[in-house]
Design brief:
about 525 residues; 20 helices; globular; alpha/beta; 7-stranded parallel sheet
Length: about 525
């Protein structure tokens, strides 16, 4: 008999574990499962890749199966919150595997996909719901979900979830949950400030810590290379190309601090003949899923991601992790390199440190209590870097530029083919007033200078609703020439008209005596 059967887990759960080949529990599972079976709240701290999902899934499924309840409309019995879409989908897949022999439904909702389909799936109710905070609140606001019947609440990656970006959403979710519930917090890192904040959501929790707080995996070899920021891209390209040539690299994760930085790294790697894809918040859900699946299948050896995506990437066989930019939060470093050396395998983490990032490196070494070894630059680095090809522009950018050129060639004007800056020369001229801020105008000639009374124009510059009769009328008016304004001409010429006479002053016509008191003081008679 295995350890799981000794715990007294339900027979369908044991069958599912046997089919998955689970025999011996991990340290976090060994300490957390007994306390959770008793119904206690729990605060679990364990490094990534140690089986936290099974640690809270198995006892929760056992408790729900021991007390079967009919599904209530638009409700769930167990709620699991995760910070990213990928992590939510990963948790849902694992829980479906554990509950394959149970009569329980598991659903997953997150942003990036139509909310209507998800709302319709929740109409009959669900036993277990895995969600991201934003989409969960969207469904609650649309009255597609209620949390009043939730029995178990799980918060995975609690330190990230309760950070500044999610704290308000978590407080709102906590107010919607029933007071009598079981709450579970799991994370790889748990700073004291976040732990104190978490005590507002859990009552008398059991603390389970299987490793010192913020320690890295022992099987990860860590190196750092000191280099200028401008030379990081060339170094990354040369490192990955050499590792691929020697077949030492199976799959590599590259972490950047920003989304645009991730796209820029992908462009440079692709120009050097290295197949790479990016995954971050600006990508659609379909793009993120396709990139992660290609990386998991091995067709794309390099995946570039941001810190948020680091929480949801659970791919076996990641041999290398590259920190293109060091994280400004030292706890993020633990999550990054935790993507490798999973399930007892070995891994290598290489960080690139610019001069202004040395304080970040110092904080990381202080947190992890590990002195990171230094790795020098490759031989003939500058000469090899100069040979790398420049990145080619993205096809989407080239297509967009081609459309703009074609539009300008048609004389449409668009958003700035004739204007001069955001100003031009007044609201009736070629802009919005003033000399403009540079660049091209916001709409070509202003509405007061458009022909046909300012009606909407088509791509050829002609009004969309013009009739032949109106065209003849407009052409006749255009042959008359400009209309003179003698008053304006006199003003521009300093008060003198072209014929040499002074302009006549305007005098109101009316009854005698009208206006005679102007500029005079009236006296009472």
């Amino acid at each position: 008999m295995s350890y799981f059967s000794d715990l007294g887990l339900a027979e369908p759960i044991l069958r599912a574990l046997e089919s998955k080949g689970y025999n011996d529990p991990t340290p976090i599972q060994r300490q957390a499962i007994p306390a959770l079976l008793e119904g206690r709240d729990l605060l679990g701290i364990a490094q990534t890749g140690t089986g936290k999902t099974a640690a809270f899934s198995l006892p929760s499924l056992h408790r729900l199966a021991a007390n079967p309840q009919p599904r209530k409309p638009a409700s769930c019995r167990m709620l699991v919150l995760s910070p990213t879409r990928e992590l939510a989908a990963q948790i849902a897949d694992n829980m479906k595997g554990y509950a394959r022999y149970l009569n329980m439904s598991v659903d997953c909702v997150f942003g990036g996909v139509p909310v209507g389909k998800q709302a319709r799936r929740l109409v009959p109710g669900v036993d277990i719901l895995v969600a991201t905070p934003g989409r969960l609140l969207d469904l609650i606001d649309q009255r597609a979900l209620t949390l009043s019947r939730t029995e178990i609440f799980v918060l995975d990656e609690a330190d990230q979830m309760m950070d500044l970006g999610f704290i308000h959403a978590l407080k709102r979710v906590a107010n919607l949950l029933p007071k009598t519930r079981q709450s579970l917090f799991f994370s790889a890192t748990m700073p004291k400030a976040i732990e104190d904040l978490g005590k507002q959501f859990i009552v008398n929790p059991v603390r389970v810590e299987v490793a010192p707080n913020s320690t890295t995996a022992e099987r990860v070899e860590q190196f750092v290379t000191f280099i200028n920021q401008a030379e990081k891209q060339a170094l990354l390209t040369l490192r990955i190309r050499a590792l691929l040539a020697s077949k030492e690299l199976d799959r590599a994760l590259v972490f950047t601090r920003t989304k645009h930085g991730a796209d820029r790294v992908v462009r440079h790697l692709s120009s050097a003949g290295i197949d790479a894809r990016a995954i971050h918040g600006n990508k659609s859900q379909a793009q993120r899923t396709a990139a992660l699946e290609a990386f998991r299948q091995g067709s794309c050896p390099v995946l570039v991601a941001t810190d948020i995506a680091a929480r949801g990437i659970d791919v076996s066989g990641v041999s290398h992790v590259f920190n293109f930019e060091l994280p400004n939060v030292p706890e993020q470093y633990v999550h990054r390199i935790g993507r490798t050396a999973r399930a007892g395998a070995d891994g290598i983490a290489i960080s690139f440190c610019a001069p202004d990032e040395k304080p970040y490196l110092k904080d990381i070494e202080k947190l992890t209590r590990v002195k990171i070894d230094t790795m020098g630059l490759p031989e003939n680095f500058m000469a090899e870097a100069a040979k790398l090809p420049a990145p080619s522009r993205k096809p989407a950018e080239m297509e967009q530029d081609a459309r703009r050129d074609a539009r300008d060639a048609r004389g449409n004007g668009g958003r700035g083919s004739q204007g001069q800056g955001r100003g031009g020369q007044g609201r009736g001229g070629e802009g919005r007033g003033g000399e403009g801020r540079g660049g091209e105008g916001r709409g070509g000639q202003n509405r007061n200078s458009q022909a046909h009374g300012g009606r909407a124009q088509g791509r050829d510059g002609r009004p969309r609703d013009v009739s032949p009769r109106q065209e003849r009328r407009d052409s006749a008016q255009s042959d008359r020439g400009p209309v003179r304004n003698p008053v304006l001409e006199a003003t521009l010429n300093g008060g003198e008209r072209e014929d040499g006479n002074k302009p006549r002053h305007f005098r109101p016509r009316g009854a005698p005596g009208v206006g005679a008191h102007k500029h005079k003081v009236r006296r009472a008679s």
